[in-house]
């Protein structure tokens, strides 16, 4: 399936303080919104912190080899009699118009049973449902050989995410809001 629980680490260095409105590294625990939904959440002792990291927390993370898992999900769906219809839908009439077009397409192919629509429009969703809260965020990732032992994030803009069973790891960095 391409999924596995692994040990995660979220670390924060000096750059989190100052005038950017971020919390200080020494105050991270009460401010992490996700602390109550992960397993084995704990503060890491200073002896376990990488250089440049002032404070960190550990937890159990779920890592997924996304391409492999999506193939598994699609195969399971098709094996159980599901039908896949790929289509480019018009956006000029918003979400309601796009869903009407999708329903019409399904009827024309005489498909029966429950209907599930997957919106994979990404930033194009802003055309479907006008939402001023949606904005691009630029980032960079690279897939490297070798499967990392842990999932790690540092200062919210650098991360290491292993792809279980693939022998590869995603490395990411940068976070430029409004630059997509």
TrEMBL record:
Gene3D superfamilies: D-Amino Acid Oxidase, subunit A, domain 2. The keyword Oxidoreductase applies. Its cofactor is FAD. GO terms for molecular function: D-amino-acid oxidase activity; FAD binding. Signal peptide: none annotated. Keywords: FAD, Flavoprotein, Oxidoreductase. The lineage of its organism: Eukaryota, Fungi, Dikarya, Ascomycota, Pezizomycotina. GO terms for cellular component: cytoplasm. GO terms for biological process: D-amino acid catabolic process. It comes from the Eukaryota. This is Uncharacterized protein. Coiled coil: none annotated.
């Amino acid at each position: 399936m391409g999924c596995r629980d692994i040990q995660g680490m979220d670390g924060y260095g000096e750059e989190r303080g100052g005038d950017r409105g971020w919390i200080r590294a020494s105050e991270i625990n009460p401010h992490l919104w996700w602390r109550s939904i992960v397993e084995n959440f704990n503060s890491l002792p200073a002896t376990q912190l990488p250089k440049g990291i002032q404070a960190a927390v550990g937890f159990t993370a779920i890592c997924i080899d996304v391409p492999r898992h999506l193939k598994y999900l699609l195969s399971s769906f098709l094996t159980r009699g599901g039908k896949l219809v790929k289509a480019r839908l018009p956006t000029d009439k918003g979400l309601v118009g796009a869903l009407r077009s999708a329903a019409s397409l399904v009827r024309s192919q005489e498909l029966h049973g429950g209907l599930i629509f997957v919106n994979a429009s990404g930033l194009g969703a802003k055309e479907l449902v006008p939402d001023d809260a949606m904005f691009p965020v630029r980032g960079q990732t690279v897939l490297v050989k070798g499967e990392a032992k842990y999932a790690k994030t540092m200062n919210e803009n650098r991360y290491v995410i292993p792809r279980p069973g693939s022998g590869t790891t995603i490395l990411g960095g940068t976070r430029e809001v409004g630059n997509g």
